[in-house]
Design brief:
- It is built from twelve helices and 13 strands.
- The termini are far apart.
- It is an alpha/beta fold.
- The strands form four sheets. The chain has a seven-stranded parallel β-sheet with strand order 3-2-1-4-5-6-11, with helices on both faces. A two-stranded parallel sheet has the order 7-10. Strands 8-13 form a two-stranded parallel sheet.
- It has a domain of about 240 residues: NAD(P)-binding Rossmann-like Domain (Rossmann fold), CATH 3.40.50.
- The structure holds nicotinamide-adenine-dinucleotide.
- Nicotinamide-adenine-dinucleotide (NAD) binds next to α1, α4 and β5.
């Protein structure tokens, strides 16, 4: 049955993958509610723009009236909430915006959803019964993993380290409270680091690819031994739609790719892929892109290791990632090589590769 999905943050990296997946591979209608901050980019949605099932609303999730209007006008069956300030380094430079969007904005959205759902209970009880609010969060809320074999499960206590992860942890608690207190049918997912096409160039993988292509230093924070569990963004988008449509309300699902790598391993793999695909003739004094790797001061409060136990979503909902780290990373490099216009416009506009999040 055709449903209406209200996706917040649909012009961002993961949100745009969710919107493309819903439009390309389902019959559902999608309403993308996005403020278009520096991270929002409608060019990531060029292939769905003319589709009659796709609608765009430019609005701030912290604007209660705009959220109320969006619910009234589009009468969604499912909310997928991805809108957020998402970059740890920016949260170190300016935490207030993270509290405003991730905490206050999520509260405003929860209230708009709750009031809409209460009205639905009167006007259309069957639709109210099926309504879902899916909050998309991160594994960073769990903080640093101490043991080398430990994994985050859905019951790992929260211990966020950065203003970003603290703001996401707060929003998770709010969603849980709206479920326990008001009965709002909500779900939460906590996912590991994503990578793939349309990733804003301030994040590790695209930054490294673009610096390497320009023959610029590839800055690795600290000793590069921080471990992250990498997931290809299209696998995440499929996991999110699976949870939003088949998950148990009131529950949390961890999502991960079984791809634990140190940052240095990621960067070295990228260098080898680029040596293979573009050669090294554009490098003035280097025989390999690996020669561009430069160790720089670490990020303050940098967590050393994250790793996800994703067995619950695999066992209960049958989701597994389609890409290995090797296939996903190769696809990602190829995407950046064939979509120069997309990232060149970003570089000409809001972000030119500068270092963020350094304490003075
Ligand atoms: P992103 O920064 O690429 O995109 C965020 C989007 O939200 C942008 O389009 C932006 O314009 C929009 N937005 C920001 N503030 C807004 C506001 N006040 N009102 C409306 N729209 C607003 O982020 P992303 O990497 O796509 O992450 C999406 C979600 O997934 C976030 O909630 C993030 O915490 C979570 N997450 C990200 C990762 C990752 O590796 N990127 C991993 C796990 C979870």
């Amino acid at each position: 049955m055709m449903k209406t999905f209200l996706v917040t943050g649909g012009a961002g990296f993961i949100g745009s993958a969710v919107v493309r997946e819903l439009i390309d591979n389902s019959e559902h209608r999608v309403v993308n509610v996005d403020k278009l901050t520096y991270a929002g980019n409608l060019e990531s949605l060029a292939n769905v723009e003319g589709n009659a099932r796709y609608h765009f609303v430019q609005a701030d999730i912290g604007d209660a009236r705009a959220m109320q209007r969006a619910f009234e006008e589009f009468q969604p069956d499912v909310v997928m909430h991805l809108a957020a300030e998402s970059h740890v380094d920016r949260s170190i430079d300016g935490p207030a915006e993270f509290i405003q969007t991730n905490v206050v904005g999520t509260t405003v959205l929860l209230e708009a959803a709750r009031l809409y759902w209460l009205q639905l209970k009167e006007s259309d009880p069957q639709k109210a019964e099926g309504f879902r609010f899916h909050h998309i969060s991160t594994d960073e809320v769990y903080g640093d993993l101490e043991g080398t074999d430990d994994l985050f499960t859905e019951t790992t206590p929260y211990a966020p380290s950065s203003p970003y992860s603290a703001s996401k942890a707060s929003s998770d608690h709010l969603v849980r409270a709206w479920h326990r207190t008001y009965g709002l049918p909500s779900l939460i997912t906590n996912c590991s680091n994503n990578y793939g096409p349309y990733h804003f160039p301030e994040k590790l993988i695209p930054l490294m690819i673009l610096n390497a292509l320009a023959g610029k230093p590839m800055p690795v924070y600290g000793d590069g031994q921080q471990v992250r569990d990498w997931l290809y963004v299209e696998d995440h988008a499929r996991a999110l739609i699976t949870v939003a449509t088949q998950g148990q309300t009131g529950e949390t699902y961890n999502i991960g790719g079984h791809n634990e790598k140190t940052n240095l391993e990621v960067v070295e793999t990228l260098c080898d892929l680029l040596d293979d695909r573009v050669g090294t003739s554009h490098l003035t004094s280097a025989d390999s892109h690996r020669d561009l790797i430069t160790f720089v001061a670490d990020r303050p409060g940098h967590d050393v290791r994250y790793a996800i136990d994703a067995s619950r979503i695999e066992r209960e909902l049958g989701w597994t990632p389609a890409e290995t780290f090797e296939t996903g990373l190769a696809k990602t490099v190829d995407w950046y090589l064939t979509n120069r216009e997309w990232w060149q416009r970003v570089q000409d506009g809001s972000y030119r590769g500068e270092r963020l999040g350094v304490l003075t």
